[in-house]
Amino acid sequence: MTGAAGAGLVLTEVSSGYGAVSIVRGVSLAIRPGESVALLGKNGMGKTTLLKTILGLVGLRSGAIAIDGRSVADLSPAKLVALGVGYAPQEQPLFQDLSIRDNLRLALASDRLLPEALARVFGHFPFLKDRLSQRAGTLSGGEQKMLILARALMLRPRLLLIDEISEGLQPSVVDRIAAALAAERVANGTTMLIVEQNLDFALRVANRWAALKLGEIDDEGPVDGDARARILRHLSV
Ligand SMILES: Nc1ncnc2c1ncn2[C@@H]1O[C@H](COP(=O)(O)OP(=O)(O)OP(=O)(O)O)[C@@H](O)[C@H]1O
To answer: What is d(CA 27, CA 52) in angstroms, rounded to the nearest whole number?
Structure first.
């Protein structure tokens, strides 16, 4: 393994929500450095809200969140980035009128870092290299998802939070994204928390899983021979 090792993430009785509504309820989850955990569950169970709570985009109501033993409660987005947190969000994450190059540049504090960071993401997604000046809004849905992930990888995150990246993608694109995530883990020991509804993808990219139901962790386990059947119980109606 080369480069910085992954970060540890510990959630202790985390609760959060919107207005008067509680969404995430008492979630405890410890992810060791280098682990990849798939967070599964039906629509509306609170998966995205939990990721946003870790990032401070949704306020923490009670409980604690620590990265490498350090509370993230009062950290600004810039400090989270400095700690090595990368985020691939589900909704409207690209600047459609900016070029691929400028969308990637926005991940960095300084252009000095650009050549090395671009070289890293070109290794995962070579098509970006030939189309750097193309407007992001003209990319296909799958290409946009790969650009979103590439942007999250620009700073070589130690903890990567990914929200339903495989949604609506054709199998060949899902394969490329799974390969990129696997390569990052091998190269950098990146810790990952991956919100998913695509069970096959989740089982490929994670070594552990947790199922969220109405804001609570309903079940969890390792990705082993029993995982598929156990998870399906949580995804089926
Ligand atoms: N900004 C918001 N204000 C109020 N309620 C919200 C807001 N965002 C989400 N919710 C509600 O919180 C609940 C959980 O939503 P969340 O997006 O976290 O679920 P999810 O498990 O990620 O689902 P999906 O797979 O559909 O993205 C839903 O009932 C949703 O309507």
So the answer is: 14
User: Does the global pTM surpass 0.90?
Assistant: yes
| Per-residue model confidence (pLDDT) at position 14 | 97
By most ligand atoms within 8 Å of CB, the mutation choice from 23, 25, 57 for ligand 1 is 23
- Ligand 1 contact, 45 CB (< 6 A): yes
14-36 pLDDT, tens digit per residue, is 999 999 899 999 999 999 999 99
Of 47, 49, 162, the residue with max ligand 1 atoms within 8 A of its CB, to mutate for a pocket test, comes to 49
% of the chain at pLDDT higher than 70:
97
Give the pLDDT confidence of 56-101 residue by residue, as tens digits.
Answer: 999 999 999 999 999 998 888 888 988 899 999 987 678 999 999 9
Domain spans in the chain, listed from the N-terminal domain onward: 9-235
DSSP summary character for residue 110: -
- Is the shortest distance between the CB of 89 and ligand 1 below 6 Å? no
Tell which atom from ligand 1 comes closest to the C-alpha of 46: 18
Instruction: Tell me the CA distances in angstroms from 146 to 45, 47, 162, 206, one per residue in order.
Output: 26, 21, 12, 18
**What's the CATH architecture for 9-235?**
3-Layer(aba) Sandwich (3.40)
Nearest CA to ligand 1 atom 4: 18
Tokens in use for 81?
């980035």
In contact, 36 and 181? CB cutoff 8 Å:
yes
